Amino acid sequence: MSGHNHGCCTPHNDGIFGERTELIFAVLSGFFLISGYLLQEFSGFDFIYALVPFLLSYFFGGFFTAKEAFEEISKGRFEIDFLMLVAAIGAAFLDKWAEGGLLLFLFSFGHALEHLAMDKAQKSIEALTKLAPRVAFKKIDGVFREVDLENLEVGDILRIRPNSTVPADSILVHGRTNINQAPITGESIPVDKEPIQNEGVDYKNITSIPDKHRAFAGTINGDATIEVKVVRKAEDSTLSRLIEMVQQAQDKKSPTQLLTDKFEKFYVPAVLILILILNLAFLVLDEPWSASFYRSMAALVAASPCALAISTPSAVLSGIARAAKGGVLFKGGKPLEDLGTLKTLAFDKTGTLTEGKPKLTDVILLNNSSEAELLSEVIALENTSNHPLAKAIVRDGSAKLPVEYQIPQLSASEAIQGKGISGHINGNQISIGNLELFEGEEQLDSKLVKRIRDLEKDGKTTMLVKSGGHFSGILGLMDEPRESAKPTLMRLRELGIKQMVMLTGDNQFVADAVAKEIGLTKAYGSLLPEEKVEKIRKLSSGKAKVAMVGDGVNDAPAMANSTVGIAMGAAGSDVALETADIALMADRLEVLPFAIGLSRKAHNIVKQNLWISLGVVALLLPATIFGWANIGVAVVFHEGSTLVVVLNALRLLGYKSE
Predict the structure, then answer these.
(1) CA dihedral 608, 610, 611, 616 (to 10 degrees)
(2) Are the beta carbons of 269 and 575 closer than 8 angstroms?
(3) Where are the alpha helices (H) located in 563-630, listed in sequence order?
(4) 3-class state of residue 232 by DSSP
(5) CA 228/CA 215 separation, integer angstroms
(6) What's the whole-model pTM score?
(7) I need a surface site. Which of 36, 42, 127, 140 has the fewest CB within 10 A?
(8) Considering only CA atoms, which of 459, 473, 462, 410 is closest in space to residue 436?
(9) E strands of 74-169, at which residues?
């Protein structure tokens, strides 16, 4: 007798009544059982007239039980189905047809209800496979024609009609719309999308393309007709990867389930030994062997670990299904269970707690210079650089200039590695850079240095601007915290997270400034990837558990060394989907409390299920051994407890974050 997968086995959808066959057979078993009982007890007819409905009750109640039992025996395994069958036949052998029929009726009826309940959780996952359409409208020789998804290639142009589903991961090339990304990312509000203008973009490097141009397979177009260019084949889409990983996650057992499996390896043989001993009770007790055999069959039903076996898998399946619907991918039962028990979270800064895009926050004028003149010269020079800070200055500086303001012509420019950039405008030299670029110059007095240091203490990256022989301004840039960061951390604290730390490669001034603004416990700056790993190991020393939250790319080593690795914005990143234990499909930090809350709910339900399943066995087994409960009572409580733990687990499908 192996660990029974009661309730988890494949529902019998291939019968004469379709997916309801098992339930209908169980009802028929109950009908003929009652008929036989009434004929036996109240009709006065010979027993042969009651035997026919009893046999029919055995047939319908035992059909699927026998089918599963013999399938398992052919694989060299004993399952509870076989033992239930033996118990029912034993009851018939003792002329207790009604009790044997009751056993098979309740067992088959409980099986059918459990299959229907578990099927609900399974269908929540299978619903993902129905998100993508089967056909798409592909542009062929200038005309859009309907083709199967399998015939789509990278680079194909597709037309997507209003309120229809996006067939493949793609980039908008014509038309503006809003797209409902909830099926993939869990975002409740449709996201505005616009066509990409740069025809020379590298479509292979999808993550470098802004979200406003991208559309994921399985998402739903708004009220406008759009045209998109396919960037991934259907089988390689984010949706396909998500489906594959969710299905794989179902097979990855949680620590509690592994412990339960280990317990069953010792428990099941112990039960079989007990049943054998009870069969021999007539040797020491003043009773016939038939009474000992009946007691052993009742004890067998009472001791069967069906509810225990299904208690954890049912909760894991329901939890994974609910998480997927909310845009969170748990890659197995272990991260689902672990996330709800940890008290420490470590965050990367850039792109996780912050926007990941530097912004021009300060423009300080020096020596009576004008803001428009300063910014125009800076924009002219920084336009020649591909540095992220240069791009931020050009973008935000241009927004500050009057619309009609002319950017001056730059005659020459030179990048000075690690320090800044220099060039000439209208014969004047202009230089932009850090303090090292201007080291040793007389104009760089202590007051100016102090102003720059004060900005740096506030977490700003500073640049000094020198034009025409004098300093004309100071620029301050900062990767600003997400608007959702502070309220999310407050919510996490309410959920019982005691310690929230930041691990970043940025300098300590920047780390401290961001940590203070959003309410982190501690910030560690100037860390190399291997130093982040070392911090994670220190945080998780002893029995402490820690989760690392990042983008799943440069944080991969730290994630691998944490109890749980959590990647944000995984919908557009293959690397994040691969490296993380938990993937937040949307680039939204505020989903994290939902994931932790769901994990804790799942953990609590698993504990409740274990208490229910073990508690029923602890009460029922002595009751059957001492003759206080017969087979009928035992099977009612046995199937009842199994059904209760499945229904309790299904509550996770309706989980809502508080």
Answers:
(1) 130
(2) no
(3) 574-579, 592-625
(4) coil
(5) 8
(6) 0.72
(7) 42
(8) 462
(9) 135-140, 143-148, 157-160
